[in-house]
Amino acid sequence: MSALRTHSVHDLVDLVLPVLLLAAGALHPEAPGLWYVCFGAAWAALLVFIVGGAAVAHRLALRAETRIQGPRTKPAPIAREAFETARAMFVAASFAAWPLTQWQLGHDTGMVTDLASRGLDPLTMTLATLGGVIGMDAWLYWKHRLLHTRLFFGFHKGHHAFRDPTPFAGFAVGPVESVLTFWPILLLCIPAAVHWTPLYFGLVTGFVILNFYLHCGVTMAWVERLLPRALFNTSAFHNLHHAKANTHFGEAMTVWDHLCGTTDVPLRRSSGVVARRS
């Protein structure tokens, strides 16, 4: 009964949170109406980019002859994965609407195309961004570990319903987890927190493509050889997390898994496959 009540609380919070995030737009100090326009545009763009990209990645994965967990014994829950992804993008759009509205109003944001206007150069910005990527990777790892604690797993359990995922599950996480993942978008509201436009969107695109690969259910030999050398996550490495749940918490890289002993695959063998059927 206690476990049931806990799960009910988790479900209730996940149900109410998107409503609160949407309602927050009415509190915009200058243009609440514009905020909602920006929110709608951001959500539509994210759905096209993420769900559309997942569809392309899934089609490509179907061409593979060998799957990591063997032939499926039942259809993949693509509709449920896509719904959870759309809900996660709803949360991401509610964050993106704030810097978008700020930009539409003509105010400075942290997104910059002309670095010289801020007294910066590409090398300095690239090094600063690299530091930010390392920090973000650490956050994603420890956030993931937090969500696997008894108190917070109820907010993450839906993602683990997809034990043998497809690319549609790459961002199929609940609202609380979405907040913990996408809140850094709000940093774009701070002009001093400079993000170089081409580098920022290049990294975001790379992370999205990587997430599709991590959840595609198949492996590409050359990718599995290349990515571990740079300590990036791979499809085989991450698929073990879906199959076993208590290992391989890294979302972009595997650095923290190796440092914290949360990998059951030695570094030199991290491109192996999972001998398990769905």
Structure explained in plain terms:
The two termini are 30 Å apart. The protein has helices spanning 2-23, 32-62, 78-104, 122-147, 175-182, 197-214, 221-226, 235-244, 255-260, and strands spanning 111-112, 195-196. The chain has 278 residues and is mainly α. A two-stranded parallel ribbon has the order 1-2. The chain has 9 helices and 2 strands, in the order αααβααβαααα. Helix 2 (32-62) packs antiparallel against helix 3, helix 2 crosses helix 6 (197-214) and helix 3 packs across helix 5 (175-182). The relative contact order is 0.15. The chain has one domain. The model is unreliable at 267-278 (pLDDT under 50).
Which characteristics define this entry?
278 residues; mainly alpha; two-stranded parallel sheet; disordered C terminus
Compact overview of the structure:
The protein has 278 residues and is mostly helical.
Question: How is the secondary structure organized here?
Answer:
Elements: H1 2-23, H2 32-62, H3 78-104, E1 111-112, H4 122-147, H5 175-182, E2 195-196, H6 197-214, H7 221-226, H8 235-244, H9 255-260
Parallel strand pairs: 1-2
**Largest sheet, strands/sense/barrel:** 2 strands, parallel
Overall 3D shape: globular
- The helix/strand class is mainly alpha
The helix count comes to 9
Our Rg estimate from Cα atoms comes to 19 Å
- Provide the number of structural domains: 1
